Amino acid sequence: MMNVMWYIHEDTYRFDFLLAICAFLTWLKLFFYFRITQTFGPMFRILQQMLIDLGKFLTIWVIVLIMFSCVGILAFGQLENFQELETVFIYFFESSLGQWDMTVFENENEVEGEDLTVIIAIGKYYQIFFLLVNLILMLNFVIAILSSTYQNFENIQSGLYYNVLI
Asked: Which residues contact 117 (CB under 8 A, 6 or more apart)?
């Protein structure tokens, strides 16, 4: 980090990082001023509550990813790509974001003389089950949480504005 902030050849300090931090803080201050308007004030309060709810959802989502990763390691530990927790977690994280790769099950047919065709077939179904759980159930869950938060705060929108003013 320090090599990026200092010009190595000239031994001078680069101030563009400080300017970027100042610009970020200026925009934050602008959002603070928008908070007292009747139009944007309640929306920022709703957004704040949605971020809190999204944090709670992300905690549940990470637990589900760790659960599928641990089961994947225990069930498919013979395969090369399912031997370390970090690798499997990143694999399922990328799969949940839409970059699923079914070829990890096709690369290996035998390990130490052991036939892995059944494990490979079960692994493909396990991947499909994970995608169904993650993409359908979890995505609908986060949409329901955020829409519920918006609906709760939409009814008291003017009260949120007066609460900021007082």
From this structure: 109
pTM for the predicted model, two decimal places: 0.69
Residue 43: Cβ within 10 Å count: 17
Alpha-carbon gap, residue 92 to 101, rounded angstroms: 10
What is the distance between the alpha carbons of residues 35 and 43, in angstroms, rounded to a whole number?
Answer: 8
d(CA 140, CA 91): 22
Q: Name every residue whose Cβ is closer than 8 Å to that of residue 69 and which is 6 or more positions away in sequence.
A: 85, 88, 89, 91, 92
Q: Classify burial at 165, counting beta carbons within 10 Å of its beta carbon; exposed 0-12, middle 13-18, buried 19 or more.
A: exposed
CA 142/CA 144 separation, integer angstroms: 5
According to DSSP, residue 111 is labeled E
Q: For 112-153, what is each residue's pLDDT tens digit?
A: 667 778 888 888 899 999 999 888 888 888 888 888 888 877
